[in-house]
Amino acid sequence: MRLSNFDYIIAGAGLSGSTFARLRAEKGSKILVIDRRSTVAGNLYDETNMYGILVQQYGPHIFHTNSEEVYSFITKYHKWNPFKLRCSVDMCGQQTPSPFNFKTIDQFYATDKAELIKEALLLKYPNQSTVTIVELLNSEEPLIKQYAQMLFDNDYSLYTAKQWGIKASEIDINVLKRVPVRLDYKEMYFSDKYECMPEGGFTSFIKDLLDHDNIEYINNEDALKYISLNDQDHRIEFHGLEVSTNCKLVYTGAIDELFNYEFGKLPYRSLTFKYETLNEELFQATPVVAYPQVEGYTRITEYKQLPKQNILGITTIAYEYPMMFEEGKADEPYYPVPTDDTAMLYSKYKAKAGNYDNLILCGRLANYKYYNMDQAILAVLRCLLYTSPSPRDTERSR
Ligand code: FAD
Hints:
Elements: E1 8-11, H1 15-25, E2 31-34, E3 46-48, E4 54-56, E5 63-65, H2 68-77, E6 80-82, E7 87-91, E8 94-98, H3 102-108, H4 111-124, E9 130-132, H5 133-137, H6 142-164, E10 180-182, E11 194-198, H7 202-210, E12 215-218, E13 227-230, E14 235-238, E15 248-251, H8 255-258, E16 268-278, E17 288-290, E18 299-302, E19 315-324, E20 335-336, H9 340-353, E21 359-361, H10 373-385, H11 391-397
Parallel strand pairs: 1-2, 1-15, 2-12, 7-17, 15-21
Antiparallel strand pairs: 3-4, 5-11, 6-11, 7-8, 9-10, 13-14, 16-19, 16-20, 17-18, 18-19
Helix pairs in contact: 1-10, 3-4
Bound molecules: flavin-adenine dinucleotide (FAD).
């Protein structure tokens, strides 16, 4: 591969790699982005299917943030439309809002008891719109505790067990400490200041990020084919690529794979999706419905509603099945498994990476962290603060 001189080679054209590329390209750096997939956008990839419905290939994504910095970054490059996500849970034969709210209490209890539970909640948590399920489970008030236990037994314990592949009895309730239960009738999945979807889809947004004269990108190429890490002098070599002497590698793929799994594999949960297209106007009341009590799948997404698309008489849905990630079996590594052991294993790789001056790790796989999209962007912005610009950037800013 003979291209111009690059200041950065970025492995991965997902949100992290593309954000990094754009921000450095605007400073004058020459960037090569390589992705081994045939598409850009990483796990945000979406495409219009044969029925004209925009479908996200790696699970439902909705942009939400409270960060002004992130919001002004995304809206600088693309048009975004406001979108408020509503979700439901299918529980004991009824569909109820997610997060659970006062409508859930009305649905699952007789009127008198429902009133008592709502009164008890408002008395115990005045001036609050949400409370966590863990706080409810730990409540001394019998009515509140009973309500929380009903939610835990019929939803949280079953859903979490399925999602993480463990027994319901093994769940540490602390993993639920950020899960909110609403103390009103509002139906909103997120409560961030900005909640929006990119016009034309996420791939279109990522393409806009990569659309800069200083950025070249290549698909269907594994960056590892060109990179070798020299353990002796801690230099990174790029075989067959004409690169500048100060070229830095920005790696957004899996850190254990970069080091050839030297200390062992970092575990991930994965997902597979089963798509169906039905001759129906609408399949479900909300774009996403969770199914804690059924065998196998965790949720169903109806893409015509994510965002709303005016396609008549037909709809595409995706069933989501969680599983352990195994190389060659499940599609992709999705969720890191945060335990003391994985933190220790990750820290070994991190320490090793620290020996290489021209290696920058960013993104959910390289950092082995679940990042929402806004957190992934913020991580890149933080990373850029600590990355000295290339000589070319410095020349430009003089
Ligand atoms: P990725 O998107 O994984 O991109 C990494 C890229 O690197 C990939 O394209 C991969 O092919 C490439 N790559 C890896 N190794 C190599 C290599 N050796 N050579 C070349 N290329 C390589 N966030 C939200 O804010 N809202 C949501 O609603 C939301 N929903 C989600 C739903 C699911 C099911 C999941 C799993 C995550 C969700 N997220 C959501 C999080 C979101 O997906 C991430 O924040 C985002 O994908 C992070 O982007 P990334 O670039 O770090 O990683």
